[in-house]
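Forum > Structural Biology > Help requests

Title: Can anyone predict the 3D structure of DNA phosphorothioation-dependent restriction protein DptG?

Hi all, first post here. I have the sequence for DNA phosphorothioation-dependent restriction protein DptG but no way to get a structure on my laptop. I'd be grateful if someone could post the structure tokens.
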Amino acid sequence: MNLKIDYNEKDYNIEDIYNSVEAVSNLSDEDKIKFLNKVFGYNNIHFINHPYLVNYYPLTNGPEKTGEIQIAQYITEIFNLEKNNRWCQFIGDKQTKNLVEKILLESIEQLPTTKNKNPFKSILRDEFKEKNDDLNYLLKHKEFALKNIDKFFAFYYFQHIIQTILNLNNTGNLINGTRIYPLYFTLETEKLTSSRKTNINGYNQIAALKNYTLVNDNLLGYLNDMINIINNDTKFYTLTELLNLPFNQRLELNKELKIVLNKYKCINMKDEELSEDLLTNIEIFKKWLSEDLAKETVYRYHLSVEDIGNYMFLKNRGSLGKTLTLKKEMLILLTAIIVKEEKMLIKDVFIEFEKRGVFFDRYTREEVASFYEKMNILDKKSDSGDVKYVKSVL
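Reply #1:
Sure, ran it for you. Structure tokens for DNA phosphorothioation-dependent restriction protein DptG below:
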């Protein structure tokens, strides 16, 4: 919709409400404004549950504001929200169901429009194909969407981040494209042992790459600087695209990379011999960057990933460290968008979770089935209970 993204309280203009609402009894104008601010004020938007007000949700006052805007831009990019008609209809909907909504939506000034340049691109291509269908289904159920839209976007944002970290670190595999790497989640209420898959193939895989998260990001940036000069363009190239360039362009990129690495080698006294192979030289560059980037900067960069996880997806398990975890509300949301309208075999539900990057071991699957039974959405179709369907949540 190209609305202003760096907005603040000044953009939330409700002067018309102050002017049109008459005070009762002996209420002074000052007291009237105080009362109206309690109902309609900028910091109380969340209490008025209406899709149009999503456009005005307050940003943090402070350094976190920049991060919030960047996350919103990244989400806009991966969902292509500006071209999603259902999303635009949802946040542009001014229909009201009570007097408070009617007064506010008839009085509030629309945010200024501007052409926003989105600086973000995702390296993931064919992964999370279901995300747009999931979003469209969620938006069909307005009340449920308003309660869960933050969780929905948080889930897909976190999944994109951790899968990007894993893909970028497996440079050699990227010649064949990106993939979803299995990461095992548990439920918040589960008790864990060290032998569980969530400890072997869970958040520990992400934590183990903390020294490479910034390295891989910088590496891709440097390679893009080189290929942009060679091709005289400003396009963003993924590593998959770089490794699959036409033969002559790969030779040219490797030649340019070797010039840079030879200078780097002399300045920083490195021992490795350079190669005639592009991928080998990329791996050498990655190794050198990991040795030379300031440790504090590397740590802070990865900490931002952990901060995102701590918001909704990580639980500290004492000596086991942090594990990928689904809270009850998130499990309900994901089940709703997976099953949609028609009941689904529970084994197929688990397959759909995996398509969205959420893997469960057999113990967690049993816990999930038990949770569905308590919710009364598990339908057993045989005496033995071997055939189980999950019913629609909504």
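Residues 142-169 form the longest helix (28 residues). Residues 7-119 form one domain.
Shout if anything looks off.
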